[in-house]
Specification:
The complex is a heterotrimer of chains A (390), B (167) and C (230).
Chain A lengths: L4 H17 L8 E5 L11 E7 L2 E8 L7 H6 L3 H8 L8 H15 L5 H30 L3 H21 L8 E2 L2 E2 L7 H24 L2 H7 L7 H7 L4 H4 L7 H4 L21 H24 L19 E9 L2 E9 L8 E5 L1 H7 L1 H4 L5 H11 L3 H5 L1
Antiparallel strand pairs in A: 1-2, 2-3, 4-5, 6-7, 7-8
Chain B lengths: L1 H4 L5 H12 L4 E5 L2 H11 L22 E5 L7 H10 L5 E5 L1 H5 L21 E3 L6 H16 L3 H6 L8
Parallel strand pairs in B: 1-2, 2-3, 3-4
Helix pairs in contact in B: 2-6, 3-6
Chain C lengths: L12 H14 L3 E6 L4 E5 L4 H10 L5 E9 L40 E9 L4 E10 L13 E3 L8 H12 L2 E3 L25 H5 L24
Parallel strand pairs in C: 2-5, 6-7
Antiparallel strand pairs in C: 1-2, 3-4, 4-5
Helix pairs in contact in C: 1-2
Classes of the chains: A alpha+beta (390), B alpha/beta (167), C alpha/beta (230).
Chain lengths: 390, 167, 230
């Protein structure tokens, strides 16, 4: 159960009080509809909860309000068009969506991108992570009622978005990855600007730590709320910071051999034993700081060279199946690309998105939880609707 | 006011009322997808501050809003709530369709579950193109809407006549 | 890498151990397997699907459910090179080497619809993709047995609930033992199973895609190798 001791004690005391008054209150439970348009759902997620007083009896998330049919659309587009489209799955950390797909296509074609391209890909990947999770750090405050952090988040994200825009041309949805490398090299002076921006991001993390993490209200509202035990997390496929906050020491950047450049930097994986909402916030805060360190190290060691391998003008991927997954900002994202050797696009592209599995745990997680805690739990699980619905 | 219905509103008064209406808009943010982030940046970030135009992005519900900014992909499943919330807005109300998904279906023009443009469901006043449009583009869209409101014929609006563009 | 070559060795020793242990536990139900440079696939007979999941989870340490999904191997010749739907083209001379009108994938396949799932062991960092033939479909209300069907993994992995709902919704694959197959993404009145290859995208029928467009170089750009789509 996800009810804390103090909540249990309060409930029992309430029941005892009713018994003393000798009034039996029989009330039908209320069915509450959270969403699809609701400030607390990060997008169009509808959750139907059945309440008994203030406690949830059962919860049923209804996704699909943002279902755009990605897997079908990928079958009728060619590889370059698919790259443009899949940016928009996790629309906050967009570059990170392109990478596993391009890596799968490269694996099927037997192409390896040159080292400079891999470094730049990793740098942009981590910048996407910073942009994505910075918004989470601010947004969690808003969901709990503290409005200031989200303004800071938007302000400091602008620096990172400026960087991504100066390198790729788009604030998000960069469409920058190509089979065999990346589209363009980094502009002059970008690396120095990046260092300045990363300094600001670290300042932002310190501000969040001051404002939220040490705040007693925040702690009371998040500690012990929404505990996900380790084995339940594995059954549901919970990944990313949500899994690491439940004590699962698993990070695909470290554990999965990948052509990208994470192995060339020295960085740590953070886990937390509690598995509650506070743990999820704390793990993500540390991950943003660590991401800034990764980017700095990679910029220091950036090799010279070409940014794109020799690729035929008309992309024709040989028949085969490839599975590539990476540690995206939201969790484990993977593409299972099936190619039948014909020109054009993939035959089947199964997109494994992290938020789908992270939200499938909501019916189990929300039983017995009080209504305000429902908001806290949803905020701490951190999903993006495009990621759930594809 | 009886003056509005009978079309006897003096011009200076019309201009005053229109100026008041266009400079104090309350926008209901209907953020669906990626454009919602750019809308959030336009509305909430200190850089592309929309409040300097007089637009306050914090109405508590649709019933207190002057216009709605639909940003993001509209799916067939989402269409009934959009229609219902548009009908909950009181007159005079306006719609800005932000982003190519809301304009015409966008990159998902051939999807089986996407409504190809929100103007299939509700009337749209301003289309802001882009994928996603920069916050400045949304601000330009809002300025266009303000200009349009400033030149509006209140009598025609009251009677519910069709809006004439460029007339 | 192109997989399904019998000479490709397992990418790591642990992959080989997993496949061998699964073969021992399932016996003849393990129909085939394949390796690539990074991954391992096994194909299981439909009768052994639930047992395969149980063995993998309880004995082989593959306790993390990555995903369960379906695949439709039908080659629709109406879907030409320009990916324009041509409803008049008959699927009479289909390409492919599978029985009927489909090609088979890695680790083979015998039917049009397959369910494939991926499990992972997060401590030893290996994963396994399991495939199973589920039938040729299509679901016909007059012949309920004709729908592609397979056992549900919900008793083993709670997260399989949503994945199987999605697979049913997109392909019409029935999962026996699932607590309630109902629409996950699509509105309740939606007709048809969208990810099937014979489900047309009507927008493309009405307005066919203009085809591959050669990007012209900018003035002064003499690198003709820039002739890449988009």
């Amino acid at each position: 159960m996800t009810v804390t001791e103090s909540q249990k004690a309060a409930y029992i005391a309430g029941q005892a009080a009713d018994a003393r008054v000798r009034v039996e209150i029989e009330a039908e439970g209320m069915t509450l509809n959270l969403g699809p348009q609701h400030p607390a759902t990060h997008g169009t997620l509808r959750i139907i909860v059945r309440l008994d007083g203030e406690q949830v009896v059962w919860a049923d998330p209804v996704p699909g309000y943002m279902h755009r049919g990605y897997e079908k659309l990928c079958e009728v587009r060619d590889y370059a068009q698919v790259t443009t489209l899949i940016n928009r799955i996790d629309w906050l950390g967009s570059f990170a969506n392109e990478v596993p797909f391009i890596l799968a296509a490269e694996e099927l074609m037997g192409i390896e991108a040159p080292p400079r391209a891999q470094y730049i890909r990793t740098i942009l990947f981590e910048l996407a992570r910073i942009a994505n999770v910075c918004l989470f750090l601010g947004d969690m405050g808003v969901q709990l009622g503290a409005i200031t952090p989200v303004f800071y988040a938007f302000r400091d994200r602008e620096f990172v978005l400026n960087l991504i825009e100066s390198a790729t041309g788009g604030r998000f949805h960069p469409n920058f990855d190509r089979i065999g490398g990346i589209k363009d090299d980094l502009p002059k002076g970008w690396i120095d600007e990046c260092r300045v921006a990363l300094g600001r991001v670290r300042g932002f993390c310190d501000q969040m730590e001051d404002l939220l993490v040490g705040n007693v209200i925040f702690q009371q509202r998040t500690r012990g709320i929404g505990v996900i035990p380790r084995d339940i997390a594995l059954e549901y496929g919970v990944s990313g910071a949500n899994a690491r906050a439940s004590g699962i020491d698993w990070d695909l950047r470290r554990d999965q051999p990948s052509p990208l450049a994470w192995k060339h930097a020295d960085w740590k994986v953070f886990t937390h034993p509690d598995g509650d909402s506070f743990a999820r916030y704390w793990v993500r805060l540390q991950e943003v700081r660590e991401a800034t360190r990764i980017v700095e190290q990679l910029m220091d060691g950036l090799p010279a060279g070409p940014i794109r391998a020799k690729v035929p003008a008309r992309i024709r991927v040989p028949a085969g199946e490839a599975w590539v997954h990476t540690e995206n900002p939201l969790g484990e994202m993977g593409y299972y690309v099936v190619s039948d050797g014909s020109p054009g696009g993939p035959f089947r592209c199964k997109i494994r998105t992290p938020s789908f599995s992270n939200i499938s745990i909501v019916p189990w997680l929300l039983r017995g939880v009080f209504v305000p805690d429902v908001i806290t739990i949803l905020a701490s699980l951190y999903f993006i609707l495009g990621d759930i619905d594809r | 006011m009886g003056l509005v219905e009978s079309n006897k509103l003096p011009k200076p008064l019309t201009r005053l009322l229109n100026w008041g209406r266009s400079s104090s808009l309350w926008v209901y943010q209907w953020g669906l997808a990626c454009c919602a982030i750019e809308m959030g940046a336009a509305f909430g970030s200190p850089r592309y501050d929309v409040m300097r135009l007089g637009v306050i992005p914090f109405p508590s519900s649709a019933r207190q809003a002057d216009f709605v900014c639909i940003s993001g992909t509209v799916t067939d499943k989402m269409a009934p709530p959009i229609k219902r919330l548009y009908e909950q807005m009181p007159e005079p109300k306006y719609v800005i369709s932000m982003g190519s998904c809301a304009n015409c279906g966008g990159p998902y023009w051939d999807s089986y579950s996407v409504t190809k443009g929100v103007d299939q469901i509700i009337p749209v006043d301003v289309y802001v193109p882009g994928c996603p449009p920069r916050p400045e583009a949304l601000l330009e869209g809002i300025v266009l809407l303000q200009k349009r409101i400033a030149e509006e014929d209140m009598g025609a609006r009251w009677r519910g006549e069709a809006i004439v563009v460029g007339g | 890498m192109v997989a399904a070559e019998p000479e490709t060795p397992p990418p790591t020793p642990r992959h080989g151990e997993l496949v061998a242990a699964l073969g021992e536990a399932l016996g003849a139900d393990l129909v085939s397997h394949a390796y690539s440079a990074t991954e391992a696939w096994v194909r299981v007979a439909p009768a052994g699907w639930l047992q395969a999941g149980r063995v993998a989870k309880e004995h082989l340490g593959l306790s993390y459910l990555c995903f369960i999904s379906g695949i439709d191997w039908l080659q629709n010749p109406g879907l030409g090179g320009e990916k324009a739907w041509d409803p008049d083209v008959e699927a009479s001379d289909p390409p492919g080497d599978g029985p009927g009108r489909w090609k088979t994938g890695v680790a083979g396949g015998g039917t049009r619809f397959q369910v494939f799932a991926r499990l992972a062991d997060l401590t030893r960092h290996v994963g396994l993709t399991l495939k199973v033939d589920v039938g040729d479909g299509p679901s016909d209300p007059d012949h309920p047995g004709a729908a592609p069907r397979v056992a549900s993994w919900v008793p083993l992995f709670r997260g399989a609930d949503w994945h199987e709902r999605e697979a049913w919704e997109m392909y019409g694959i029935e999962f026996e033992g699932h607590p309630g197959l109902r629409h996950l993404y699509l509105p309740g009145e939606f007709e048809g199973f969208p990810l099937r290859k014979d489900f047309p995208l009507l927008a493309r029928e009405v307005k066919p895609w203009p085809g591959f467009v050669n990007v012209e170089g900018l003035p002064g750009d003499d690198d003709s190798a820039e002739d890449v789509e988009a």
